[in-house]
Amino acid sequence: MNRSLYVRGTMVEDGRTRELVIAGGVVADAAPLPSREPDAVGWVLPGLADVHNHLSLASPAGDHEEPAVRVRASASVELAVGVLAIREPGSPDDASMLLAGEAGWPRVVTAGRFLSPPGGYFPGLAREVTCAELARAAVGEAARSGRWAKIVGDFLGGAGEFVPNWPAGVLAEAVAQVHAAGGRVAVHAVGPEAVDAAVAAGADSLEHGWAVAWVPTLMPGGSQAACEFAAAMGFSARTQEWMRSALDAQPATVARADAAGVTVLAGTDAGQGPHGAIVDQITMLADAGMPVTAAIGAGSWTARRWLGLACLEPGVPADLVLYGADPRIDLDVLRRPALIVMDGQVIEPDPAFMVRD
Asked: In Å, how far are 155, 203, 206 from 200, measured between CA atoms?
């Protein structure tokens, strides 16, 4: 843009009013205010953030398309709702790594390929390694992706029940080696044994967990929807009943975890379901008992800072989403961004991928 963008915004995080001048793609530091009315006025976030999203899966482009097309179609859906940061904890391919370096797309933090033992994850999705190979593979995926590795901690055994994929010592050694190399580890864990092993190993995030940062990936439709999925996947009756009990208790667990100081973050697990659902996840966190501002932060500034991304500090690339009303009063406001700015440029979402109410 040839002239600066001038935004007067109320920060949703703390209620402060800020005069934001964006020039050269960054938030200007102590710049004089333009001698004109603001270009936009409203409530401001540094963008929404989805910390558990698989861009290559369940893409609106369809499974028949090449990975590069699939991830761009998925990212377009996310961008249209104001998601400016995405963590992809594991992928069946490397397409999102290429997207991460391109201008005009959400900031993508990838974790390379899923890592599982043979038969330890959905067929065809993971890079399969043995116990002896896990640590080296995790270090390699973290190096390739830029920092993160994703280890699948448990999966269905032959009896249709969740069983750990790795001995606790093997998982702990892999986490230790990734940390020694300067990386971070996300562990997919559903059952209590895998959750305990991930926490004991010092994993940086716990995905699902149905302590470290926790991404609960709450499920629309609750335990009933989960059990219908479980039955279709061949889970045993005992596992289905355990899932029902665990998921019915999950909202109260989310509230207790937040009150205890656990970093609870919003992740949709898009790829297992549709893209563009981060507002649903924020709403479910609030409905579970998290304070509304904390729930929004879990899908915005808290998540961005945890990922090491800036939040409208002077001198940093300007990412923001502006709304016409206060989303702390009505979370549905988050579904209607009035202005989306990425790297200081106003983004016009592709109407083909707009998320409808």
From this structure: 19, 8, 11
Query: What is the DSSP secondary structure assignment for residue 284, as one 8-state letter?
Result: H
- Indicate the angle between helix axes 168-180 and 192-201, nearest 10 degrees: 40
How many residues appear in the chain? 357
Helix (H) or strand (E) holding 92: none
Query: Rounded CA gap, 91 and 203, in Å?
Result: 19
DSSP 52-86: SB-TTSS-TT-TTS-HHHHHHHHHHHHHHTTEEEE
- Which has the closest alpha carbon to 153: 140, 172, 139, 137? 172
Q: Side chain identity at 101, as an amino acid letter?
A: G
Q: Measured at the alpha carbon of residue 8, what is the angle toward residues 10 and 322, in degrees to the nearest 5?
A: 65
Per-residue pLDDT at 227: 63
**What would the pLDDT profile of 183-208 be if each residue is shown by its tens digit?**
999 999 988 899 999 999 999 999 98
Least trusted range by pLDDT, from 130-144, 207-221, 244-258? 207-221
What is the longest distance spanned by two Cα atoms in the chain? 70
| The residue to which tokens 């923001």 are assigned | 320
